[in-house]
Amino acid sequence: MASIHTALSPEVSSSATNRRKTTPTPPTSRSISLPFTFKSQFNALVVGGSPLLGCFNHSLVPRAVATPNSVLSEQAFEGLPLHQDDDVYDSESEATNGDELDVSKLGLPQRLVDTLVKRGITHLFPIQRAVLVPALEGRDIIARAKTGTGKTLAFGIPIIKRLTEDDAGRSRRMSGQLPRVLVLAPTRELAKQVEKEIKDSAAYLNTVCVYGGVSYTIQRSALSRGVDVVVGTPGRIIDLIESNDLKLGEVEYLVLDEADQMLAVGFEEDVEEILENLPSKRQSMLFSATMPSWVKKLARKYLDNPLNIDLVGDQDEKLAEGIKLYAISATATSKRTILSDLMTVYAKGGKTIVFTQTKRDADDVSMALTSSIASEALHGDISQHQRERTLNGFRQGKFTVLVATDVAARGLDIPNVDLVIHYELPNDAETFVHRSGRTGRAGKEGSAILMYTNSQRRTVKTLERDAGCRFEFINPPSMEEVLESSADQIIATLNGVHPESIKFFTPTAERIIEEQGTSALAAAIAHLSGFSHPPSSRSLITHEQGFVTLQLIRDETYSRRFLTARSVTGFLSDVYPAAADEVGKIHLIADERVQGAVFDLPEDIAKELLSMKIPPGNTITKITKLPPLQDDGPSGDFYGKFSSRERFSSRDRFSRGGSKERRGGLRTSRGWGSGRDSDNEFQGGRNSWSRSSRSSRDDWLIGSSSRSRRPPSGTSEVHASTAGDQGTGQPTAPRSRTFSMLMLLFGALGFFDRYWHSLYDLDGGDAVADLRGNSTDVFS
Ligand SMILES: Nc1ncnc2c1ncn2[C@@H]1O[C@H](COP(=O)(O)OP(=O)(O)OP(=O)(O)O)[C@@H](O)[C@H]1O
């Protein structure tokens, strides 16, 4: 078997490219399906940079499988060992394999190797290894791998190798040199990240990142100084092409990163426009988590006999294996208090990303947390500069909780995120996988917790099926667990105190221990944990301190009337009027065989009530675990309603005019603070909930461009279809009339299309730029 070194030698590689450019393309496309788990891949490849493990050849080198739809391409693995027998462990081949993945043994340019090793990248990850040879052969590639598995360097390493070798012997670039590499990314953050990955690996190449939301001036002058690699979002790239600042006539390598996300955020036209501008003789690599028809079309039209490299394949499990999944049932009102306890117990002071559906929720949750935990919000209404500051601060650990809309779900590579919390259910399994994939990256471990209300139970099951995962269902952390975790965190902090400081305080410590013994230290830990006062009891419903949750069960033989919240209050006022006055949340038990309810009372009132004589046939008890409750919040969720297909088709109904709106449009208030707000939502019914939530969903389009050249699109057709088929329930008549009238009014003003886009998370900044009369810099 040829060594990879030979396979990757410059001569071989460049001749492959030349061949590709001059010879006719082979008649069939080929694909490789690599069915193996990522846990084993990472175990085998790199565990914190440790030497390769014994299971190496079980996992590292998957058996390539020919399926009816894919033809095994051994050519792509030229120079790489293909083991036919998974079960045979062979230490000799382990050594060989280890060498062949060792970045210093791949024939890569020394300076690239040096920077990779300095960054702790000593061995290739599977997707990198799978892409490397065909990429160096000049093949067009379509690739897919799980989150956090190193896709950026999968295209980065071969491209850097090429540019470096071609540059060797040449003097440094001249001013005005045109880019040879173009990387398209769907979001600004992702573009910046790709830029960073390339710069960190090859600082000697001139890499420029262009994206909207910031001034053109710096980007223009960077391009004019000469550039090797341009990374950018499609909107700004088109702007720069149109202003003649960016010329793509010398692009040899095109990378489409997160291609399916381009579609999801409405960049399809822009991407195609850019591809039309590229030289036809080029190498293209397309990375996509899914293959919606537009991406397939793109591949057919713009890629040349692409090789498919799919490291996910038909595996049910779409998540990287280091991610532990939990699900927790919470009422709409208890989510907030449970949230901080979950972070205390499951993140243990490490980094957490909390995902909300709406920008408003992201702000509210972040604000509410700030009193106890340093946290920041990240969503599309936040200026680009602030978003960058926020992400940098989070990366550097200046604060530990990032509350984000799905703007942060894709692609963001933040090291060492310990916990992801789905504060609201994701729209679809894909979003769930990407949100969760912000933890457990590069073979590390992490946890993801899904919060759901009782009415969303079925959706959780659907999600399990769609994402091919299993949740461990957990209860809200008990006070003991919270105290214990808080104490652990304090101890970890104490362990970091500088010895010099300790010396200074030692005499005092000795004196106090002498006087008070260990309780002195316990008091210090309690105080630092924020528990200077003993924790009071907590409601199981709202998790609010000072409340306890009681359960009332009525024996059917005494009364056949259905229990209602009103009858619970009536019962309480008969037994103990103070309890009726003070009762908090009341929820009916979901079990139809039981006539029962749970309700909150202040601790002292509950104590009184429990000591009273209760009318026969009724039982009141203090409970420690909630039974399943009747719907406590909005009955619906977004799951499935914004599946890719639906989103695409809804977008397809619109012309691609300048109807992008970045803002929430009409928004009914959706606070989560008080129970009252939540009740109102509930009483407002499914329709009002859906509408209010959608309207403030994050229609961010982080990489959008507000190109004013786009005329506003016509909307009349849209009015008819949207009004007709988008309500998830029937609004009450007056509400519906008011809503229709409002819509007519907005439609007449030309706003409706934008509103519609904002409702459905469609992209764009144009409309808002237009609305506000802002310059393109603000939203582009
Ligand atoms: N061979 C390697 N060894 C060690 N670390 C690596 C290696 N390759 C990449 N990494 C690191 O792994 C992390 C994840 O990489 P990257 O962001 O490219 O993943 P991804 O597959 O694009 O993820 P996503 O699908 O979420 O966008 C990065 O911090 C990157 O620097």
UniProtKB/TrEMBL annotation:
Cellular component GO terms, alphabetical:
cytosol
Catalysis: reaction(s): ATP + H2O = ADP + phosphate + H(+)
InterPro entries hit by this protein? DD_DDX21-DDX50, DEAD/DEAH_box_helicase_dom, DEAD/DEAH_RhlB, DEAD_box_RNA_helicase, GUCT, Helicase_ATP-bd, Helicase_C-like, P-loop_NTPase
Q: Specify the superkingdom.
A: Eukaryota
User: What keywords sit in the KW lines?
Assistant: ATP-binding, Helicase, Hydrolase, Nucleotide-binding, RNA-binding, Transit peptide
Question: What are the BP-aspect GO terms?
Answer: response to stress
Residues in Helicase C-terminal domain copies: 338-490
- SMART domains assigned to the protein according to its UniProt record, in alphabetical order: DEXDc, HELICc
Example GO molecular function term? ATP binding
Enzyme class comes to hydrolase
- Residue ranges with Basic and acidic residues bias: 643-664
PROSITE patterns, sorted: HELICASE_ATP_BIND_1, HELICASE_CTER
Helicase ATP-binding domain segment(s):
132-309
Question: Which family is this sequence assigned to?
Answer: Belongs to the DEAD box helicase family. DDX21/DDX50 subfamily.
Can you say what this protein is called? RNA helicase
What species was this sequence derived from?
Hibiscus syriacus (Rose of Sharon)
